[in-house]
Every structure is written in structure tokens, then in C-alpha cells.
Sequence to fold (147 residues):
Amino acid sequence: MRLSNWPSSTVWNQLSQFQNEMNRLFDRWGDGGPAAAPVFPPVNVWEEKDHLVLETELPGLELKDLEIFVTGGNQLTLKGERKTPVADKKCVWHRQERAYGAFQRTLTLPFPVDPDKVEARLEHGVLSVRLAKHESARPRKIQVRAE
Fold:
């Protein structure tokens, strides 16, 4: 028995493709919806003896398009712009997942840092920032006297 009202396989293929696109869209946002969209650039931050180290990947960013600020003693701001690549006008985009454009991210650091002792290096698209702890944030040994 053949059902004449049953949709053709073309419709099912289109619905499957639509579902895949919707899944990609929601995967990009994560489980929390648009409010949980990832921040850019993602960073790793860790503490060493007398320093804080920050590392982030900024592929395609030119050094002239990057600024780093330390404010308020314990805030670090990364500001920059990743230029959109110029594609041939005859090209057809099939996927564009990399983000381009201006960005600014401010992080509150776990302790004050010395803004005069900050080293930053951009190598092979990886930014490394080394921030010295401010003197007030360094542990001090207290001498105990006996009476």
C-alpha cells in the first residue's frame, strides 16, 4: 500500500538539514542560551610565586591592533580589533565561525598588581601577560618576639 500524501525524501532531507543548522546555532550559545555566549577572548589565568600570568589566543591579530591597560590596581583590560579578511567578491561563504571585529574585555584580578612591572608578549597568535604582584599583595613574614 502506497501513501500518496507521504512527503518525498527531499522534504525529509531539508528538515534534517534545518535541524542540523539549529543544533549548530544552539551549540554555539551553549546550554544557557544567548546570555551564556562565550566571551572573547577566552583567557587562562594562574598565579606563580610573585606574579600573575594571563594567556589568551588571538590568531590573526596584529600587534598594532592590541592595547593592554592596568587600572585600579587590580583590573586588566584587553582591547583590540581583529580585521575581517578580505575575500574575493566572487567567493561563496559556506561557513564563517571565527569572530572578527573590535573587542574589549576587563578582568578583575585576585589581588593588586604593579602596573610598572607588567610584561606582555604576542607570539604566534598567543598573548602572554606577566603581572608582578603589588608590594601590598605579597606575603610578609612577621617576626615573633618572646618576652
Summary: The mean pLDDT is 82.
